[in-house]
Amino acid sequence: MVTRFMAVLTLLFSLSVLVSTPVFAQEQKVSGSIPCQPDKVTGDTWLQANLEYMLGYQNEIYSKWEDALNNYSKALACDTSSPYLQMQVARMLFKLGRTEEATLKLEDVLKQDPANVSALMYLGELYNAQKRVDEAILLYERALKAEPEKTEALLFIGVLYASKQDFEKSQACFDKVLAKEPENLLAMYYLGTLYIEKKNYKAAETQFKKIVELNPNFYAAYLNLGLISETRGRPKDAEEYYNKALALNPQNLYIRERLAQLYISGKSYDKAVKELEEIAKNIPNVDIHFKLGMLYLQEKEYDKAASEFRVVTSARPSDILSRYYLALTLDELKLYDEAIVQLKKILEYDPRNINAFLSLAFIYVKQERLAEAARVYEEVLSFDQSRGEVFAELGNIYIQAKDYKRAEETLNRGLSLFRDNADLNFAMAVLFEKTGKTDQMFVFLKRTIEINPKHADALNFLGYSYADKGINLDEALSLIRSALELKPGSGYIIDSLGWVYFRLGKLDEALKQLKRSLETVKDDPVLYEHLGDVYEASGQPKEALDAWNNSIKYHAKEEGLKARVEEKISQLKKKYKL
User: Which H or E run contains 372?
Assistant: First the structure.
């Protein structure tokens, strides 16, 4: 809040200087001690001073500070005793960043005229700009003593005390102003801001509401009312106030940023995106591009998200977080090779970034580059063995690669460290199923469910295994139903449900569930095989033949299936003479 006071103070000073500039009036004529170029026609130095002043004023309007300084200096040369012209020169020096020269010029004015209120006020601004706050306060106090009704000086004193965290003296100044001028908007505004700093939000809100009643176009009061509402947990009120402020000042990007943050908190991502896009058009703010990327990612607009994250990584190559989200976005776009490039770049900056390693391995698995995925997991385990899931994933890769010996070694290593890790126990059950060790498979499936009763895959696997062997069918039905509650849309679990109904002799229900499973998973040979088995048992040979032929189309996904199903087709044709 201190920075806000300082920003307001600077703005106020700037405005006061611009609006208080009077038309140049006749002052004492030239002393002649400084060379002056008199008017060429009349030879009148006063006329020349006025001409140079007007030229300087015109150049100042067009922000030609150097030219304005030159004109004002020429005018001063013709009227060296003019405090006003000395102040104009000082102002231009300050605008050109020549603060020390400007300060000396004003100090000279005050040596000549210690009670010059304009010089006191302006020198106070310069001292404040140089962080000479205490000296600035003394100057404003001198101005106030010379001109007791100058509430502007009292306001500045209050702001400066606030910048020093002396809130009591600051509030006393604002209260004095309001005692004299009850509708002084600036005093009310500063007092409200002071209350915010003191966390007296109720009192602050009262001040800002008074302001907008008196002046409905005071956008900064609406902004602060929005901030207060947001702080007090009233997002709808905050949104209303921010939009009022924005309507009055559409170019204010801070208001848009607050609105965007409010929309993000309320999960109104489409509204947040609009505000951030507007900000991004106006300022090259890399952080805004990151926020936009995150919102596009949230909304699954992956192309736009990738574009925003690329802007960030181009501007900040070592920004690991942005690069990581870029990789995730590219993964969603199935641009796997590009995603790999980004993940490897992260590992150049941070050689032990676990998230980058795990994402890299995951993409390699998607690409069926199992050996490379295994190497990534092995590298992780070389420096970090604190994650049971890494052992489980590596074991699963070796199972997929049919390297069952390595799979068992890896899973046993993991279980020696994480005996109660459900994923490790489940992976071991899968391994024993693949190697035909059914008893051990049942032991590890039950162990997985004991550790995590909501492990849908283990519930389904155990229930399906019971059904496939024609044992414990009521328990199998219960297990599969539990799994389906956890994963309602899983085609594989629906297939298991159909299969257990088949084993229970409920053929109509079995057909219904198996057809439903194939609406979700359209290319699995085992699901088609099951459907064919139920059709055959229901006395529908043509439908069974169609289902088994579809199963053979996808036989590459299931080892040994082709020969098994071809034998079923052969027996069907013989039986029904098809």
Answer: helix 370-383
